[in-house]
Specification:
There is one protein chain. The protein is α/β, with parallel strands linked by helices. Helix 1 packs across helix 8 and helix 4 packs parallel to helix 5. The chain is globular, with a radius of gyration of 17 Å. 46% of the residues are buried. It has one domain: 3-Layer(aba) Sandwich (Rossmann fold), CATH 3.40.50. It has a seven-stranded parallel β-sheet with strand order 3-2-1-4-5-6-7, with helices on both faces. The protein binds 1,4-dihydronicotinamide adenine dinucleotide. The site of 1,4-dihydronicotinamide adenine dinucleotide (NAI) has 28 residues, from helix 1 and helix 4.
Length: 256
Amino acid sequence: MLDMFSLEGKLAIVTGSARGIGQSYAVGLAKAGATLVLVDILEDNLKETAQLIKDETGRDSKTYGIDVTDSAKINSMVKEIIAEYHKIDILVNNAGINAPKPFLEVTEDDWKKIVGVNLNSQFLMSHAVAKEMVKHNYGKIINMASVGGFMALSDTAPYNASKGGVLQLTKTMAADLSQYKLNINAICPGFIDTGLLKPSKSRDQRLQKVMDNTPLNRLGNPNDLVGACIFLASDASSYMTGTQIIVDGGMSAVAM
Ligand code: NAI
């Protein structure tokens, strides 16, 4: 790995790393040299990610089976991580949920849950971790947004609103934390074939329409996003903050 992309000696937290994109990010960051702290509500599945990392790199990972909307659990986890590793270099706010529904069927509970996991958790995790990063004048925070953060994908009002919020949170954190030399950026994927798409898998026609309107003509897979994550986590992106990388097969570049 080129030196500028190396994460040797770095400590990285990835939320939502029990499966899907977060699992691929965690393995990718570990292969680039980082030690991983894996966070997810699916505690048992985290062991699978930890094992993949062990198999690929020989390194052990720490796992936390917590809900990233629970600020008390987040704060005590960060305290423990600092006691053990003395610093946090990289945070990937990846945990997210969706529950596609036409706007008129969305309940207040749907709204609170989706915005809670997708947006509030990114604030809570970033707040707890950035307080530690500023002590070292070093830190890379990567927030998972979506093309839904700047385009209207139908039947996903709370999701799109939460991801739009993530993009604004990213920009504002970049402005406020640049004095401490922190880099805060976002990744906006298009349609990636993971568990998150399951609720819409029955809607084959819709996914077919997405693929027909995607210049690269396929859904993405989690590995398609790993390079962007390593880049933003590494010193190769040290002059980038408050911005986003779109990884969508060209979908948002063309009119549907
Ligand atoms: P996924 O459903 O495969 O994985 C999400 C992970 O987050 C799961 O392991 C889940 O247990 C965890 N999680 C959910 N709620 C949690 C909570 N309260 N506390 C702790 N962990 C929690 O989904 P995928 O596709 O891997 O999504 C990862 C991120 O990428 C999400 O932020 C999602 O919004 C974003 N994204 C995904 C796209 C896609 O097409 N799959 C497109 C654009 C963005």
